[in-house]
Predict the structure.
Amino acid sequence: MMLRCIWIQSFSFSHRNGIAGKSEEEEVLPKILLMGLRRSGKSSIYKVVFHKMSPTETLFLESTSKIATEDVTNSSFVQFSVWDFPGQIDIFDPSFNAEAIFGGCGALVFVIDAQDDYLEALSKLNMTVTRAYRTNPDIKCEVFIHKVDGLSDDTKMETQRDIHQKATDELAESGLEGQIHLTFYLTSIYDHSIFEAFSKVVQKL
């Protein structure tokens, strides 16, 4: 498992904020979208995985206020673009261009804070993956059950089962069970689990 995730830690990246001024090269890069509620840990994941920031430094990060993007282009094995979205973004706002965001997207990673009440997160997960799937049926939907470093092993498993069950039930109520396939990962920035999870996501592109 360790060997599979080492390569993602060795990349260097090019950095941009926002989505304007996209180059021709960027247009063809498969996108990985990083979404979730505010304070779920998205930006910490983004900084640790793609900027090699130490986990303790992320304690001082402010909430993301605009979309930030990162291109991984120096590997012949895989090239992709990561988009970190603010938690307060409304995917049903008329200004949200679903085709531009979800179209051509390889994977949507939705981050859920395992140490918080995740009912609101599950509701937003359902709305987000539903909108994404209806725009791009080929998109891979991944769920990072995050911040599990503070949980016991039994609580981790119980939380994963509960989130998996509730998310599946909500998809069934939306009539999309069997069409949208969610993959769940237990993650933490304080160990290799976040690199392993991201490596598995990238391997599906």
About this structure: The beta strands are 14-17, 31-36, 68-72, 80-84, 105-113, 140-146, 182-186. Residues 153-173 form the longest helix (21 residues). The two ends are 18 Å apart (CA to CA).
